[in-house]
Structures are given as structure tokens and as C-alpha cells.
Amino acid sequence: MSPRVTIVGGGVVGLAAALALNERGALVQVLERSSRLGEDACSWSAGGMLAPWCEGESAEPEVVEWGRQALDWWETRVGGVRRNGALVVAAPRDHPEIDRFAARTHNRRWVGEAEIAGLEPDLSPRFRKGLHFPDEGHLDPRRALVDLAERLAARGVAIHFGVDGRNGGAEKDDALLDCRGLAARDELSDLRGVRGEMLILRTKEIALSRPVRFLHPRIPLYVVPRDGGEFMIGATSIESASRAPITARSAMELLNAAYALHPAFGEAEIVEMRADVRPAFPDNLPRLVSQGRRMYLNGFYRHGFLLAPAFAERAAAAIFATEAIHEDHRERRRA
Ligand SMILES: Cc1cc2nc3c(=O)[nH]c(=O)nc-3n(C[C@H](O)[C@H](O)[C@H](O)COP(=O)(O)OP(=O)(O)OC[C@H]3O[C@@H](n4cnc5c(N)ncnc54)[C@H](O)[C@@H]3O)c2cc1C
User: Fold this and answer.
1) What separation in Å is there between the alpha carbon of 185 and the centre of ligand 1?
2) Phi and psi dihedrals of 133, rounded to 5?
3) pLDDT of residue 2
4) Residue with the nearest Cα to atom 35 of ligand 1?
5) What's the mean pLDDT in 176-197?
6) Residue of 299, 304, 187, 196 whose CA lies nearest to 242
7) With 80 as the cut, is the pLDDT of residue 168 above it?
8) What kind and span of H or E run contains 333?
9) For 204, phi and psi rounded to 5 degrees?
């Protein structure tokens, strides 16, 4: 029999899990507290980098391993996935930062001025030394969420908006998968918030084909190109669960760094400034926590889009295994 699963929370983690479960044959519904997709989700603020090897600079080796399957998973399910790699550069005075980055990462190659110009002509001749990560990619996270929701709808999976999943909404026999992000702190006591601030700029004066990380000892920055001449500029990482608007200082630092990467950003329109809070466990790794037929999938920190595929599949497998045991118990009781 197909298991029935109610998922609480319609951010990237909840939607990816809904799809992974439904693809295996589960009957799934998603309960989302806010009134529309992304309205109250950290996922709406993400850069959309699918960058396991770059993240290896500061993340545990597991992140690199789990993140490797992300590009294939997303590419077969949503539109707009780009497999153009990623570029890391620094101003000449900060070249030790690139050496440090290189020492902590794999699956990359050194590039000089001519190669940087070949990859990103608009950055020429500003940078003499960089790292190219050819197997990385990126997507527009908002488009990915919309595409996921449409794909789910086409498969008969309903997302019920305006429903607080803590107050019911699931059938008695449903397995429950809690993907509430930071809101699950009420039940996951070691979940914490890591504030991230970002900007979206628009300009036709510069074009980039891939995410560019601009290293700096104080304000490292990344720029992720999107359609329509838009660029996501991110992101701060502050030990705080405050979702208050971006501070003037953070906005100035991000803008200054963008301007230092390319002066054309000085004339760009500011389309959006935003702050959100990443849900994280103490080791900054995601967890699937089982409590009988209730499971929690959370703690995706900086890696919601990168690691949702691996963990959605893992959660789906765990739910099918648990439900098979329950079905077996039910059969024995009936016999
Ligand atoms: C500035 C920034 C940049 C980032 N860049 C990247 C990146 O480039 N690549 C990457 O992989 N990751 C990135 N991340 C991290 C990523 O955004 C997060 O890891 C991810 O969004 C977490 O997803 P989630 O589904 O767990 O939580 P959320 O997206 O917060 O979703 C949780 C959902 O649960 C709902 N909810 C809460 N309570 C209830 C309830 N009681 N009932 C029903 N629904 C409820 C909420 O409304 C929300 O929609 C970035 C994050 C930030 C802030």
C-alpha cells in the first residue's frame, strides 16, 4: 500500500521531500503556514549556488559528498539550472586569501588573467589569479520553488497554504515529516539561527555566466547572476535569529564589495535588500530526526538547495521503511 505522508513546511526542504516521496509512490500533502509560496521561507532569500567544492572551504567533507548529486537532481526537475561552474577571485593584495581557499578545496584549477577573461570577459583585466570550479552550478531559487510547486501540483500533490501544521491538518494514519525550518526550534532545542543578509541589483552594464566569489579578509562576497540583468549579492553570516531588515552597515559592506568587484555595480538599481535566518544545528550539518512515525528534516544552514536533494531521498527511503514496518504490524493484528 502507498504510504500517506503529511509534510509540514513548504520551503525548499519540504517541497523537495514531497517530490521525492511522491516519485516513490507516496500520497503526499504539504501544509504551509504562510499564504503564498516563499512568503515566510528562508529559501526565498537563497543565492541558489550548487557549489559543493567551494563550500568545502569551510564546510565538513560530508557537505561536499552529499552535495555532488544536487545538480543532476535539480536539472531533471526544475528549469533554469546552469552548469557553468564557479569562479573565485581576489584583488592582488588579497592573493593569500586565494591560496588559503585553494588549500582547503578540491576539484578546481588555477586560472590566470587570460583564462579569467575567457570565462568572464567583463571581469577582464581586473584579476590576475583565480580558481575555477568547473563542475559546479547554480539556479534561481525562486524559480526552482515555483517549478517544484507546479510539478507537485501536476502530480496531484496539494500544497495547502495558510495552514499551521502544528494544529492538525493531517489524517490520523499519516506519517508526518516536519520541515518547518527555524520555526521547529520549539521542538528541536539545539536548532539555532544564522542571519544572512543579501541584495539584488540590476544592471545591463555587466554580464556574468557563473557565480563569482570575491575573496577579502573582512567582507568575502559572492555574486550570482540571474535572468533579466539581475545579480544576487550575498551574504552576511551572523550568529543571530533576528529577521529584522538588513542593517546599513551590512548593506554598505555588500555594496562596497560589489563595487570593488566591478565599478558597473555602482550604477546598478537596487531591486531588493533582504535579511533571513538559516536554520542550523551546532555542527552546521542537516539532520533527519526520527520519533516513531514523526520525522524532522532540518538544519540545512547555508546548504538548503545544495543538500535538499540528498536528504529528500534519504527521508523518503526512511519513511517507506518505517511505513512498511507499520503495515506489517497492521496485517499481523488483522490476521
Ligand atoms: C542570504 C542567504 C543565502 C543563501 N544561499 C544559499 C545558496 O546559495 N545555496 C544553498 O544551498 N543554500 C543557501 N542558503 C540556505 C538556504 O536558504 C536554507 O538552508 C534553506 O532555505 C532552508 O530551507 P527550509 O525549507 O529548511 O526552511 P524555510 O525555507 O524557512 O522553509 C520552512 C517553511 O516552513 C513554514 N512553516 C513554519 N512553521 C510552520 C507551521 N507551523 N505550519 C506550516 N508551515 C510552517 C514556513 O512558512 C516556511 O515556508 C542561503 C540562505 C540565506 C539566508
Assistant:
1) 13
2) -105, 90
3) 86
4) 9
5) 97
6) 196
7) no
8) helix 304-334
9) -95, 0
C-alpha distances out from residue 83 to 70, 75, 210, 298, Å? 11, 9, 8, 27
Chain segment 103-140, per-residue pLDDT in tens: 999 999 999 999 999 999 999 999 999 999 999 999 99
- Closest by alpha carbon to 53, among 77, 75, 70, 74? 70
Categorize the per-residue pLDDT at 292 as very low, low, confident or very high, splitting at 50, 70 and 90: confident
Give rounded-to-5 percent helix, strand, coil for the chain: 40, 25, 35
Ligand 1 pocket mutation pick from 35, 305, 307, 311 by most atoms within 8 angstroms of CB: 305
Helices (H), 104-197: 113-119, 141-154
pLDDT tens, 72-98?
Answer: 999 999 999 999 999 999 999 999 999
Cell representation of residue 255: 555594496
Chain segment 218-237, per-residue pLDDT in tens:
888 999 999 999 999 999 99
From 300, 301, 311, give the residue whose CB has the most ligand 1 atoms within 8 Å, as the site to mutate.
300
User: In 267-316, which ranges are E strands?
Assistant: 269-280, 287-291, 294-298
Distance CA 301, CA 283 (A): 10
Q: Which three cell numbers stand for residue 233?
A: 549579492
Alpha-carbon span 49 to 186, nearest angstrom: 29
